[in-house]
Amino acid sequence: MPPAAPPPATSPFPEAAAKPGAPQSPAKYISNAFDNPDKDAEFVLVASDNVYFYVHKWPLAKASPVFKDMLSIGDRQAQPVGTALDPLHGLPFVEVTEAAHTLAALLEFVYPVTNPTIKTFELLSNLTDAAHKYDVAVVLKAVQLSLRESRFMDPQPLRVYAIAKRYGFSQVEKDAVRKCYAINPAKVPSLLIPREMEYLSARDLHRLLVYKRARAKGAIDLLAQARLSQVEKCLACKRRGCVWWPYFNSLASDQLREQPLSQALSRSLLNETKAAVMDSLDCHVPMRTSSRCSNFFTDLDQNAGLITYLQTSIDALPWEYSYP
């Protein structure tokens, strides 16, 4: 069953063909995926953009206690639900606040559809809202799995964090916190624009900042420990880190303050260190003073394993910290 397509160019509803000059009522359309082909639908859900979904009571009532209560009202009353009936099939209908694409996605999980897909973050966010509103357990489970997928989590960790906080998705929240260490809303204010940011309090955002600073401090502290325990003495000048260590330490510290994650450090940092030393010491000419060491290139390459050691050590740091 494909997802509901955009409204067609024409409408099968008789009132859509209004007389010239007569007041125009909003056009009504039928979902391509829920168009009642077998003429056995029992109920109609009308999306906010006037798309009609012809549905059956049993799967909705089974999936959602909210839908179950909604549909049972008509069973207990002589007058069907709603003040009017669907003009095509005479079925009772209920207007909902969700747009057609969101409602179609929700129904695809309720009906036996093979591998329903969620293609955009906007749809995932709207679907999460709808699943919570109607208490559809199967969809709530599905959206939590989707929120943890890298295609949604990696580019939008703060939005995922906001959704997780709002709906109490604890495991999703933990995963999102880790990904949020890689972003900086202070430098990229557009991260705070999406509507999901309304779900976060100032305290929620401050907690992320405190966690990030604490982890950055722990990561930077590892640098000093690594120099003593992992860096070999230069064969020429007999110093740990030779002349390159202060430059490496400064570059690595800056990167870890921005992103206290193992992936913030890579072997490219070695080349950046070499360039920094060359610029600072004017190493384009032969070194002649005792403050310089002509072996620093070789010494730095021999300590390349330092990157792997630091990455492993940073991965072992806590992800959450005490918060006042």
From TrEMBL:
A Pfam family reported for this protein in Swiss-Prot or TrEMBL: BTB
Coiled-coil blocks: none
Annotated spans, Disordered: 1-24
InterPro entries: BTB/POZ_dom (IPR000210), SKP1/BTB/POZ_sf (IPR011333)
BTB domain location: 41-111
Biased composition (Pro residues): 1-11
Protein name: BTB domain-containing protein
